[in-house]
Amino acid sequence: MGRFMTLLICLGCLGIALGYPDGKISVACDSMLPSHGGNVAQTSVAPYIITVSNTSFIPGDKITVTIKSNSPSTTFEGFLLQARLFGGDGIAGTFTTTDSNAQILPCGAQARAAVSHNSKVSKTSITALWTASQEAGPVRFRATVLNSFSNFWIGVESDTIVALKMSNATCGSQKFCLTDPTNCSPSDNTCYFMSSSPVSTNGYVFEMSGPTPGYVAIGFSDDNKMGNDDVFICTKNSSGNILVQHGYNTGTVAPTMRNVSSAGSIVSSYKNGVLKCSFITSSNSSTLQRASGSSSYYVFLVSGPSNADGKIQKHTKVVISSHKVDLSTTTSVTTSNSGTSSVVLGHGSLMLIAWMTTGSIGMIMARYMKSAAGKPFLGKAAWFQVHFFLMILTVILTMIAFIMVFVNVAGWSGGVHPVLGCIVMILSFFQPFAALFRPDPKHERRFIFNFGHGINAFVIKVLAVAAIFLGLILVDISPNQWMPKVMGGFYAWEVLFYIILETNMHLKTKDIYKNDYKIEIVALAIFICGNLAFLVALLVGIGQSA
Ligand code: HEM
Ligand SMILES: *[C@@H]1O[C@H](CO)[C@@H](O)[C@H](O)[C@H]1NC(C)=O
Ligand SMILES: *[C@@H]1O[C@H](CO)[C@@H](O)[C@H](O)[C@H]1NC(C)=O
Ligand SMILES: *[C@@H]1O[C@H](CO)[C@@H](O)[C@H](O)[C@H]1NC(C)=O
Ligand SMILES: *[C@@H]1O[C@H](CO)[C@@H](O)[C@H](O)[C@H]1NC(C)=O
Ligand SMILES: *[C@@H]1O[C@H](CO)[C@@H](O)[C@H](O)[C@H]1NC(C)=O
């Protein structure tokens, strides 16, 4: 076996050493080295250049690639041309050619992946047409060009051409991505998206995208707080020009800015309220030079409004990676999502306590426990005292939670959850005041109060259910989003008890069985235990979302 392999390899050496005048050099796809005997590549600047017809592309676009010599007297006999993903060594896209001096080659399993000479004829230029594939990120054309058998240059490269269409297709495999919501796509108008892939020591391709009136920015920090962070900002001035800037956050104030030094083209767009920028930082001038000297950072993605001249104002949206990310690697880095700030989690916890226990039990008391808990307690019927106390507690908890999140967010982040939350807040606020001025129970118009109070309670309950549901979706960063599902289980539990108690009440009014209150009391006890179990589960989940 060993001897057989040696024989094969030697035959291979022989083949390569003799050269491939026919250009069938797929064997050299990976290294792009001609292995021409003992000859090594020239180290001087190559007398050849690669030009491209367009510096950006969207998948499916065709770009004309030309290898040409610097002067008519310099010719070349052979070449191997490929498109390589900037940042990795992956081969991108496919080629076609009508050039009589060129042919298309496969590389491994990839058909049409390279272009080469088809004879030793001396030429000064060749052209080929490259078609961008779906997943291609920034791409560089790379060639080995042979002036003669022993005189050749490797690593002749074109300018980097950038994908106009940002995509999440290679997140986790070829680039690191931070998105909100989890795993969203930058072609979705509600998606906050950033990606990074290393291109050389300290150089990166960055992409950022998000719905915003003014700017999106990415930041790299040693901690998960603002201050001492490298930031790259994509901002729009009032004439609609998009500017890319590099800066440094000195604290929680606007960062000090420098122009971004970009080795590759900046691609930017503003469509449907979504601002996008992608660019390549050069290896040195815009490095992320953190004091620690490590390449692991917390990554921020923020957006907010900007002034007429593009100067940024305080963000209205902040996404923070849940842990430090090593930007020098891209493979196997998975998307991480921001942990939620503790104020927001406090807000959520209070709302859950208010609407899963106090509010929920208080409402059950008023509807089903009137006769079971009809004995007077401190001057009024016991059910009323409990209902009154629990509902006032609910409104107070709701108000504290409401104020908490508004102070924290300091701006309207938009979405259905806050709208529903505000309506619930206003309606809940009315409920105790209206109750304060209710007519006497024996008053002829008392039914109006009863009806209005009941309807309002019902509307509040329905909206609160929806708001809490949406809120949990926002807060839940677990991959399987279990919290909204548990909440769904809780609502089913609640509906079950409404059905049981409603049926019980109905049967009693029809005198189908005797009035004893065991059923109500037992049902209430079970209901409360269940509520507490669901509540604890969700509070634990909220604790884990930090
Ligand atoms: C005019 C520019 C900016 C101002 C005035 C500003 C102001 C603030 C303030 C006052 C806070 C404290 C917490 C809060 O009130 O929500 C904060 C938090 C934060 N900022 Fe900025 N900021 C600006 C730009 C940026 C930029 C460009 C980035 C990064 C790309 C950034 C990243 C953050 C992060 C990650 C937090 C932490 C949020 C949290 O704890 O929930 N900020 N900012
Ligand atoms: C370059 O490609 C972009 C994106 O497909 C296209 O809009 C633009 O017209 C092209 N420019 C040239 C000069 O071909
Ligand atoms: C890209 O986005 C789509 C749509 O949101 C999603 O289904 C898909 O899982 C995402 N892919 C990656 C690799 O994140
Ligand atoms: C940014 O670039 C512009 C034009 O290239 C230049 O006029 C300006 O002075 C630069 N600003 C800074 C802060 O370097
Ligand atoms: C690159 O950065 C290093 C360290 O900051 C510096 O010493 C060096 O002069 C820089 N090189 C260039 C070309 O800017
Ligand atoms: C917006 O930026 C462009 C390019 O830098 C500049 O020519 C234009 O004057 C700016 N407009 C305003 C209102 O600052």
From TrEMBL:
Domain of life: Eukaryota
Keywords: Electron transport, Glycoprotein, Iron, Membrane, Signal, Transmembrane, Transmembrane helix, Transport
Cytochrome b561 domain span: 309-510
Localization in the cell: Membrane
Domain Reelin positions: 14-176
Keyword Nucleotidyltransferase: no
GO cellular component: membrane
Protein name: Ferric-chelate reductase 1
Organism from which the protein derives: Engystomops pustulosus
